[in-house]
Amino acid sequence: MDATAMMATINEAMAGTGVECKLQRRAGDRVYRDVDAKDMLEADLSMRCREVAEMLKPLTPDEKMEWAVAERKRGNELFAAKEYKEALLVYMQSLMGLDFGDGTDAAKARAAREHQVPVTNNMAICCFHQGQFAKCEHLCSTALNVDPRNYKALYRRGAARKKLQDFAEAREDFREALSLAETEAQRHGCRVQLRDLAAHLRREKEKRAKLKKAYAKVLARE
Predict the structure, then answer these.
(1) Among 181, 122, 171, which Cα is nearest to 150's?
(2) How much is the pTM?
(3) CA distance 180 to 150
(4) How far is CA 87 from CA 29, 61, 167, in A?
(5) Is-contact 114 147, C-beta < 8 A?
(6) In sequence order, what E strands does 15-157 have?
(7) Distance between alpha carbon 10 and the CA centroid of its chain, in Å?
(8) Repeats (TPR): which ranges (predicted)?
């Protein structure tokens, strides 16, 4: 049971009593605030990690990989059902099943490329759909550290950076993604994003020019 389910169970049991249980997080010396969705997700992840780590301890590397693949499939089903929060947790569990052990460098690289990168990409898009754009950007960067030419990671990081209004960096991601695109649909998607970013960057440039002009007028009056 994760933190979200635990709180729901407690409040369901207390229904009708006029009492509601809430979690709070320390925000400073003697200062507490109610937890938000991000806090609950972090608590859920922490509890799941501990539970999964204990469950995986007795398994062999092959058994762990089999379990990891099954969890990845379950995460895909949850994602298809738009249950993004639960899908994110399941994908995280899938990564915990990776056990590189004493394998060869080639075997480790293959496991990372065939399982770690796709699952990390899936986690990133789950974060994107939940409005967690900074976390999406970080996960895409993690995937790109393993596979620098991964189209999906570049495209999704560009989308996250665009949401974060980091337009120049987003443009670089979409340009790189365009160079790696394999289908016309992928190329079209990149071009649409690049046209939109060009408009954003043009407006930013015009805004800076107006501010500079206005500032110059103020200085001239002084």
Answers:
(1) 181
(2) 0.73
(3) 8
(4) 36, 23, 29
(5) no
(6) 24-28, 31-34
(7) 29
(8) 151-184
At residue 46's C-alpha, the angle toward residues 90 and 5, to 5°, is: 70
| Token pair belonging to 164 | 């974060």
Q: Return the bridge partners of 32, or none.
A: 26
- pLDDT tens-digit map of 14-59: 455 554 545 455 555 555 555 566 666 677 777 777 888 888 888 8
Give residue for tokens 């930013």.
204
Q: Where would I find the beta strands (DSSP E) of 7-77? A: 24-28, 31-34
- Determine if residue 165 is left, alpha or beta; phi over 0 gives left, psi from -120 to 50 gives alpha, anything else beta: left
Q: Residue 177's closest CA among 193, 198, 162?
A: 193
Burial class (CB in 10 A: 0-12, 13-18, 19+), 116: buried
